[in-house]
UniProtKB/TrEMBL annotation:
Organism for this UniProt entry: Sunxiuqinia dokdonensis
Name this polypeptide is given: Membrane protein
Subcellular location: Cell membrane
Main location: membrane
InterPro entries: DUF3817_TM
The keyword Membrane is annotated on this UniProt entry: yes
TM region positions: 26-48, 60-81
Lineage, uppermost ranks: Bacteria, Pseudomonadati, Bacteroidota, Bacteroidia, Marinilabiliales
Amino acid sequence: MAWVINQAGKKTGFNMIQLFKTKIGWLRIIGFLEGISLLVLVFVAVPMKHVYNNPFLSESLGPVHGALFILFVLYTLSVSFEQNWRFRTTTWKVLASSFLPFGTFYVDYKILKGIK
């Protein structure tokens, strides 16, 4: 994440504004939102639909998650071309993370936070 570094070189706080200034930052934000929407769908909306016969959350959150998923894929491809990522080493991992619960959070921590 984007930490604020003081004059002594120590992390003093998190600066969310920095994420909005780069494509990597936007990819991380979209990945976070896509990951949250997937978790809510898998662990809340789908059980509500099948156990309690209440499809409201699935029907309303499904299209939002779909849009975030498509946006995540497009931003991943855009950033991969911009950063000259090799598909076999980086791009496929970032893309695959969007299919797994907690995957986008893992990729953000292991891959994306270290890229400027």
